[in-house]
């Protein structure tokens, strides 16, 4: 498997209050590296993060189909897996060249992955897998599900650590350029949530355009990223640079 763990792949932008397709984000050689492994007339399967929301799933399918074509990627088919076809997933999975693990609400997506038995089934998958935001987070062996909602931030029963797909042992926090300055439930995300949680388990914070690529047990970080560990934060990679991770 060729595994891309991204914060955001681009491909969608806001225009006059509506989402429209655009080119994928080529920062840090992302599209160039992806093209290296891309097959002509690839078949893409988007695994939804919100399996009950058929309307939004179909909209994202159409947007990403246009975005990949705009960016010069050859594809013959793009489908979405949600509640409408989840009972067929085990038979569908291996027919696709590219899997997209969608962005969204981490615990909701995590529950759907469990329903699909994705952790078990993906072990035999030999194509390209692209995690986007929550999809990247849920790819780890231990998922750091940082609170996203006010209610989650103040709920002592909220589970911040979940079992993931075990495609990597690296925990990821996406969209760091934005979330580091936010407050949730009256708590500062960086100072009151992220840094204290890093004492439990370290994780890499990615800004949009940065990503981690895994192939043959070799893990490479591309672009601006930060390591949060033991209550500290360190910038470990710059834009247009790369580094090997243990």
UniProtKB/TrEMBL annotation:
<keyword id="KW-0378">Hydrolase</keyword>
<keyword id="KW-0720">Serine protease</keyword>
<dbReference type="Pfam" id="PF03575">
    <property type="entry name" value="Peptidase_S51"/>
</dbReference>
<dbReference type="InterPro" id="IPR029062">
    <property type="entry name" value="Class_I_gatase-like"/>
</dbReference>
<comment type="similarity">
    <text>Belongs to the peptidase S51 family.</text>
</comment>
<keyword id="KW-0645">Protease</keyword>
<protein>
    <submittedName>
        <fullName>Type 1 glutamine amidotransferase-like domain-containing protein</fullName>
    </submittedName>
</protein>
<dbReference type="InterPro" id="IPR005320">
    <property type="entry name" value="Peptidase_S51"/>
</dbReference>
């Amino acid at each position: 498997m060729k595994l891309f763990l991204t914060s955001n792949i681009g491909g969608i932008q806001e225009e006059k209050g509506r989402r429209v397709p655009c080119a994928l984000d080529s920062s840090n050689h992302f599209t160039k590296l992806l093209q290296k492994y891309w097959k002509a007339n690839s078949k893409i399967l988007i695994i939804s993060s919100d399996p009950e929301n058929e309307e939004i799933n179909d909209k994202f399918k159409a947007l990403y189909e246009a975005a990949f074509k705009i960016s010069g990627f050859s594809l013959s088919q793009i489908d979405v897996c949600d509640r409408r076809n989840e009972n067929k997933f085990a038979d569908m999975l291996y027919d696709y060249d590219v899997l997209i693990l969608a962005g969204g609400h981490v615990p909701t997506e995590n529950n759907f992955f469990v329903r699909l038995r994705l952790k078990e089934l993906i072990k035999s998958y030999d194509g390209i897998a692209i995690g986007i935001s929550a999809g990247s987070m849920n790819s780890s062996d231990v998922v750091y599900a940082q609170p996203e909602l006010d209610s989650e931030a103040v709920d002592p029963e909220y589970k911040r650590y979940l079992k993931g797909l075990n495609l990597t042992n690296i925990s990821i926090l996406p969209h760091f350029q934005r979330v580091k300055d936010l407050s949730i439930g009256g708590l500062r995300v960086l100072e009151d949530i992220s840094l204290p949680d890093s004492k439990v388990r370290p994780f890499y914070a990615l800004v949009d355009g940065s990503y981690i690529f895994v192939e043959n047990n070799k893990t490479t970080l591309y672009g601006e990223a930060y390591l949060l560990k033991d209550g500290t934060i360190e910038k470990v990679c710059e834009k247009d640079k790369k580094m090997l991770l243990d």
